Amino acid sequence: MTAGIPSRENPVTHVADLPGRAARYAEWPSWADPAVVAALRDRGVAAPWAHQAEAASHAYEGRHVVISTGTASGKSLAYQLPVLSRLAASGKAKASGRGARGEAPVVTALYLSPTKALGADQLRSVSSLDIPGVRAAAFDGDTPMAERDWVRAHANWVFTNPDMLHRGILSAHGRWATFFRRLSCVVVDECHSYRGVFGSHVALLLRRLRRVAEHYGASPVFVLASATTASPASFASRLTGLPCVAVTEDASPRGARTVALWEPPLLEELTGENGAPVRRPAGTEASRILADLVLEGARSLAFIRSRRGAELAALGARRILSEVDPALAETVAAYRSGYLPEERRALEAALLSGRLLGVATTNALELGVDIAGLDAVVLAGYPGTLASFWQQAGRAGRSGDSALVVFVARDDPLDTYLVHHPAALLERPVETAVLDPANPYVLAPQLACAVAELPLTVPELEMFGGAAATEVLAELAERKMLRRRSSGWYWTSRERPHAEVGIRGTGGEQIAVVEADSGRMLGTVDPGSACFAVHPGAVYLHQGSSYVVDELDLETGLALVHAENPDWTTTPREVVDISVLSTQEKQDFGGVSVCLGEVAVTSQVVGYLRRRPSGEVLDHTPLDLPEQSLHTRAVWYTISAELLGLEEPRRRASNRSATAARSVGEEPAATGSNAGPHSADEKPAATGSNAGPHSAGEKLAGSPATAARSTGEDPAATDQSTPTRSAGEPVGARSAVVRGSAADGEVGTGGHRVGTESAGPVGTGEESLANGRGPVHEGGRAPGSAGLVPARVPGALHAAEHAAIGLLPLFATCDRWDIGGVSTAWHEDTGEATVFVHDGHPGGAGFAERGYAAIVPWLAATREAIVSCECPTGCPSCVQSPKCGNGNDPLDKAGAVAVLETVLGALRQHGS
């Protein structure tokens, strides 16, 4: 893969050889049904591994258990063995009539997976064993209506997903009465994927499942399977509400793996915004590596961060291969969610048969088809968590053979940090998954569904959060959705609430993408990302074909497109406002305050840029799309004027300038970024920044600069040193910020530049950076202060915010698009310079809390990522964002380091 690359340009920054491991076996348990053991032996399983036997015995003996071991460690056998043994014995009892006497009761089982691909794969695995008496069947969105009645009446092991359990099973549990009455086991596969808002919904969904089962007299055992994760027993207990035993010692064999960390080279012929150096895109690099692997005959997967990226990577690999041998181009394809069911099934069959050698995929295959014999995996960008990294890496060498894993860094602060700090990727323990079932935005709709299923009694409140549930129920009763009686709470409407509750945080029914000329449905997009992915003018890719969106109708859930193959991509731009609603925790550190609380964020996609593949911006097109509001949780830190190095008289003068600016309708300066909800594998970009004042209704033009000049003020002074306000205040008294959002799913921050166009670049830090390794501050810097002049403060905070958003996923189990942020040189709610980082989901998902708890290591890693970058004044690998709506200006790399050093110094000096 590196053949022909000069040694001085070698993109490989680190190579680690991970040793193999021998297997440890156990005897088949005495309780295992002989027919099941015989079928497994025929498949080649001579004996179970020790961890499989241990977990299976816990489940068979009635203990709730979570098995948390590595990828390809055979976790499926740990639940298949006890479930199939129970079902086989049940089938024999039913055939002989003994079940009526209780000697071997007739039982059923339920299997839950986060993706349809994984559920279909596990169903194939169980069905292929052909155990007498086992009637396994799928019940999901792809199940034909004609088959659903048969599944309800006859299947004794139902394979489904949380979405169908929520909408199609619990909502109509009366039709499933026989199944629930016999329910003995619930399998929750890949449970580590249930995190954030989705995980919080699933936690409450499992409590609803328990209630319904208990209503019919059943008390099923829960068996959870998880990738290696921290504190699996604690997490499983939070997810199910039940005490769980953990099995964590992996006894499976593992082939040796070589892990290569790969940083794409800088492109000498191209520069990015403001002349910054740029690297070859990770998706492009992964596409080339995938083609090289296919040429060598290696069966390979390339994990790409977005649907668009997966399509482009497959196209690129096919193009390279077609130049060598056109037949090889047919051995590469893309795989992602959003395909129609028959398309997914055809691709899965081609994967299993080996007809496909290379597949560019989203995380839809991270948990999906169990493909044996893969030789290599390429990861184009950090997948957001260490658990996902090792899960994706583990797809290679799944038969115990040696394998290659290549991690290709995106031009992103976190990825750059990881390829230069390999221990943070390869030696750090896996994170604990974060979920918050008490989130009122999650709890309220889940309680409404629970009450609609069965009246809720006071003793049942504890499983739903006790006091938090009581408070939410009172609010629902006040809104006349429920009725409170002495015996409990009752649903008052004839309509069930389930259809209106999206458990993945997507906010409603999917948007159908339809080709206008033919009426053919190409795929679907979740409504939370529709304004980003299929806004009018957006480029939409489907199975290698390009389409341009003509119309988006959110009310009817329809996006109309036409076929076109443009040589440009689209990048949305978004206006964002933010305000503090409440401060729940606050710590003061001598001029620096760190806070955790609730904020209000208002956003609106207001336009999009057309870009060539080189990054060149062709034009900006305004859009008129509806505004979206978000009440969520945030962590923020403030810095006093003294620690920034600003003189008090200068700040008072700035305040007077701000008053003058507001008198002509302007808003104070702010920068920011924000994220919105997303589907299981398409993560819409959603962050933004703004460097200057404008009203909520303004577009991206630089009119505020003109307004500032009309007052006779100095544009640079007004724009760069005025105090600022943020969101949620009345129009005319708040600061709106603009964020950029990637059509390809990658995430950055954005905004727009105001009031400095005639003054040239501001606050780049070029004059203050020595060899790109650290700041050289202005003369007269006070001890412990950042030593910044007022004009540099917005750029310094903006750069620090960009980098901090990029590094938080290192400390919280989140993806970068799960969070957003805003930075401002003066915020009305705090009275000081402030940097916010907030959750991108209503009510929060627990990520801000993680940032608050890890504030010192988080900001220290942020500083290290900036200082370690080789660029002189800022680039996408440190402080720039490719989606920044204000063109990454102002950004002050040296100023960001100075700010972070000052904040960290105060935290360490005054912290306990």
From TrEMBL:
It comes from the Bacteria. SUPFAM superfamilies: P-loop containing nucleoside triphosphate hydrolases. InterPro entries: DEAD/DEAH_box_helicase_dom, Helicase_ATP-bd, Helicase_C-like, Helicase_put_actinobac, HRQ1_WHD, MZB, P-loop_NTPase. The keyword Iron does not apply. Residues 650-787 are annotated as: Disordered. PROSITE patterns: HELICASE_ATP_BIND_1, HELICASE_CTER. Residues 289-441 form the Helicase C-terminal domain. GO terms for molecular function: helicase activity. This is DEAD/DEAH box helicase. The keyword Nucleotide-binding applies. Transmembrane segments: none annotated. Keywords: ATP-binding, Helicase, Hydrolase, Nucleotide-binding. Residues 56-228 form the Helicase ATP-binding domain.
